[in-house]
Amino acid sequence: MDRKTLITVSILVILPILSILYKLNIAELSLLPVEVDDTVNLQVVILPKENVAVSEVNFPIPKQFIQSRVLKSNTKVEDLDFRLQKKQYGHLGIWEGEDWNSSIGYYAKIKILPYTHSNPEPELQQTNGKQLSKEPYYLSLKNFSPEEIRLGKKLFEQIHPYDKDNVAAAKQIFYFISEEVLNTTKDITLEDTIRLNNGSAYTQAILFSLLCRMKGIQARTVAGFDLSKQNSKDNKAKLSFWNEIRIHGKWYFVSTYKNIFAGTVNGYLPLWKSVEEKRSLGEEPATFRYTAYITKSNVNRYNFKEYSEEVASSNSFLRYYSLYSLPTPLQNLFRLVILIPIGALVLSVARNMVGIPTFGIFTPILLAMFFYETNLIFGICFFLLMIGLGFFERYALDKYYLLAVPRLSILLTITVITLILFSVLNEEISFFNQMSVTLFPIVITTIFVERFSIMIIEEGILHTFVTLGGTLLIALISYMIFFFGSLQILFFTHPELLFIVIAIQILLGQYKGYRVSELFRFKEIFKS
């Protein structure tokens, strides 16, 4: 490497590093937007137990809560009738039918939001009459047995939270259960929990709700999934239980089992916000068994709004010249366009160092954008179909001895007709999901098919198909890079990193050694 190249490459590498250090230390910006990983796929499979005749099964269905947004859902129903019972504190799916012997259940894609209310201010105790008229259910004891109420009152007198405001009383009840009641994973009743001071997450939550209601504090037991307790091997999850208490009109998260009182927590997916109403949720059903699978969705979402506000509020010139200052449509465009140089870098390595042949310089990159803008399976199928049609169209039109421009116009028309047929059939039969039609297929395939036909005539079928395979390979690699969310956000947040890409291209441009393909091509010479 000569001195001039070394200086140029060094400058191109040092400038982005200095720019990022300026952003971090002087402009006091974050390195990247905060990654949002809050969308999960929930699948619940329900099966009948052996030798049990079942005519009705019910299980909670995801509902829109403050902490969960159902983005997509689907209920699996075989020969059973399905109905949805909607209540304020949850949705209950009810399957009914005879001879049920196959699995049923549902799938849902859910965005999970955190419990944000924390550290409530002291609340003066109101009369029970006012509270009952305001929201009677969450103070009611009607779903507790007489024995549970008797034991609960006896325990309540031991705790003695009479002379405290509601927040202090709730804390006293919370500390008593979390410190005096030992955690257990065994099945246990609420009565045994009070007697033995042993309790599962379910019985502890029910006990907390019972004691709070006796004090006049609105409380409820929540059933749902705790993502931190999920089995990492098979993504299975069991129902977890926690509480919510109402102070100053807001619901606060409480878990005596995990020792959390009115804290900000994330990763909790509520399904049913009144276990007191459906006590069977805390017990093993006698007629069926359920299996829940929870996996994180590959969303690659980042909190762009928060980072844009951070850039706008900085005392740096970057608030005027950052890509985050652009309108949202332009930002979405540049998040894709800014990775094109990375695709070109992959192409340079593939051609100059590996020796993979391709149709032209930009064709694989444009083809990758075609796949990205439409659908990968649709893109490959449409592309290969157009190559076949264009190949036969070329030989058919050769008999008419047409000039180049009319021949290309005919090929363009055939491409448009084929795209219309693809779109209409897909609308009726739904071959391809999330397919969007853009101008890329028309432009790319028309030009590519013409070059493909010419290359077959000039260089033969074998070499042409090898080049086609290399083009598709580089296009697929570039396509995967376009979906690499972290890399996309890194270059969008720090576009000066493109100078490092230029530096690498300069080094690649000066490479004059053997390509990998040539080592195999001339292996007999190397042996001799």
Notes on the protein architecture:
With 528 residues, the protein is an alpha+beta fold. Helix content is 48%, strand content 18%. A five-stranded antiparallel beta sheet has the order 4-7-2-16-11, with no helix packed on it. It has a five-stranded antiparallel beta sheet with strand order 14-13-12-10-15. A hairpin with a 2-residue loop joins strand 5 and strand 6 (90-96). The protein is elongated and about 100 Å long. The model is unreliable at 127-134 (pLDDT under 50). InterPro entries: 7TM_transglut, Papain-like_cys_pep_sf, Transglutaminase-like.
Low-confidence stretches: 127-134
- Rg, nearest Å: 32 Å
Give the CA-based shape: elongated
Query: Helix/strand-derived class?
Result: alpha+beta
* Ends apart, CA distance between termini: 31 Å
Fraction in helix: 40-55%
Spatial sequence of strands, sheet with the most strands = 4-7-2-16-11
The major beta sheet can be summarized as: 5 strands, antiparallel
| DSSP strand tally | 17
- Beta-strand portion reads 15-25%
List the quaternary state of the chains. Answer: single chain
Main attributes of the structure:
528 residues, alpha+beta, five-stranded antiparallel β-sheet, 19 helices, 17 strands, 48% helix
